[in-house]
Amino acid sequence: MDLEAALAGSNYKSRLDIIKEHSETLWEKDTVHHTYYTLHGMKHSRAVISMLNGLVDGIDPDKGLTNPEIFYLLASVYLHDVGMILPYPEGEDEAKGISARKKKPYAKEDLIRDKHHLRSGGYVIEHADNLNLDHVESEYVRLICEGHRVVKLDTDDYNDKLVGNNERIRVRLLAALLRFSDELDISYQRAPKKLMDILEGEMPDYSRLQWLKHHYTSGVGISDQESNGMRKTIVEIQTQYPDRGRGKKITAELIFKPIEKSLKSVDRILLEYGLNLQLNLPEIHFTENLDEIPEYIYDIYLGQKLKVSMEIPRIKSFVGRNSELLVLLSSLDKNIIIIEGIAGIGKTYVAARFADEVKDEYGVHWYGDLSEVSTLSSVMQRLAEFLKDNGRPRLLNHIETFGYYNIDVLINILKNELVNNRFVIFFDNYHKAEDELNPLMKQLLYIESSKIVLITRQEPAFYNVVDVGENRIAKIKIDSWEEYEDTQEMFRLRGIESADDTTLREIHDRLHGHPQYLNLFCILAQKSKPETLLEKLLEAREDAHSYLETEVYNSLEANEKLLLTIIAVYRIPETVDALYIVNEFTDVDEVLNSLINKFLVNEIGIDTYNVHEIIRDYCLNDVKKKKTLRNYYKSAAEYYSSKDANPESLLEASYHYIKAGEHEKSAEIVINNANDFINKGFWNKIEYPLKDAIKTFGKH
Questions:
Q1: Which of 413, 444, 504, 699 has the fewest CB atoms within 10 Å, i.e. the most exposed one?
Q2: pTM for the whole thing?
Q3: Dihedral, CA atoms, 433, 642, 398, 442, nearest 10 degrees?
């Protein structure tokens, strides 16, 4: 849709021309207040309108924009950034005060950037007469301008407004459209290289990072897709970077994540009007002749932040767990927080959101999945590396000097570091290493300034009623959704609006509010009517679950099944490099994106993946030829053998060789590395494998 053309022939066209001319005059004066910001002005406004033209095509035709709404939206596009070029004489003093409170550099330019949406709104009210807006219209344009960033859009201020005789203006929808389309204008055309070269000598580091963000973005595209009567609006991003490994991380953190965050803030609003947006993973091209982000800028703005973002599982949409999240946030006065629940119920999902909420207040470390080969010494090693990354090298120095012989000394060093800092450390799948780690957790019960979060299927045994009574422990049980509204929200976010209220309630009851099985139902409901699926759903809970697993798996494309199986072969989350153990893939990223959008694959941070547990066994059992599955395990074993020779990788290689039926190779790993295993505290993990290895070689 061409929004400006839609106003042709109406009085709104001439009124919009007045606003455009006014805005253009302002930008032509262009003051020093935004010297180092990426280009805004009229080119940016036109780019935002281009994005809007693509987005509004996805709105339900019955809920399309009216001419007055188009006028207020376009007026806001031309005015939403004018706050960046207004004089701000008191800005220096205000910025100094903020810098003192935050205890970090904060300049006037930062203040202008952070408040420009509010200043733009104020400008609209002050200059309403010059903009040919009456007192009612200027208020609505103000709201839309201010709503293009940060402002909460779910307040009463953004409820529908009336103009004149029964003309309804959906300011919440208009602000949401402007916010997301504004975020999408990130291409290199907004940060010309020649201009960047001129400015970069005195350009502040943060501003330079923003210029580079645009420089690496080739383009953003919006297209519609229709399948089985369901429409989706697809957002595609293409980027370039000179280094493959770092490029993926930077693209995810610097380019993709802000867009993803912007979409999360408006997706529910847009869905109310039928605009079902799917944000595809970026397509990354590697171009060696580009300049990299300077190392010092990378370290300051991306280094540790990027490391944290790479660790925390990525959450596509947060549904139905707000009460649990509030309980977790109110539990930060406890020392150890336990998140307990059955497989697939959403423990990691809630914990990841919790981690994201507290990362500005605490130093977050997502340890990730504990496994069957995790030991107290291996955990201490990784915690020591985390502490060193945060300027606390004492524990790692001690390990490198004295090894793991006196574990009590290591625990005391760890305790001191946690006492003197504010960290939150998340351990997923704690039940897999509980026997190993319970002695450590018993010691950490008395650490107050830092927090430990354990994600587990069963209640650990390292504490007692006294610990609970003295508020050292918080326990949060993650159960099925009780509220039908949560199921309703999930279906709406997935773009499934064909089911009536009665059908949705029955689906919720029959699946007992289990989020992952409701997700499987949603996958099928995107191709079949919910009512038809409900008729086929068996009454018994286990039978219904089995039916959904089977039907969803059978509905996948062959390449999706293959990739899902490969990921399922690994016991712990693995990087995309591990998935190339099979040479049949032509485009892993495309298939991964499809499986992630179906919520069948979890993205653990950046570029690391695992399969939802409730479908893992089904994937592996579906491989018809045992030889094929053994080959997958053998390839996984070779992958682990090729990695750094750390004990955990070697034990994973040993495990996969056994699953592949190659016991001799497994035995070789155990015997050849026995001394290293013992020195690094893995004796109890190799005692029985070592005996089996000796038996294996004794047969020859």
A1: 699
A2: 0.72
A3: -10
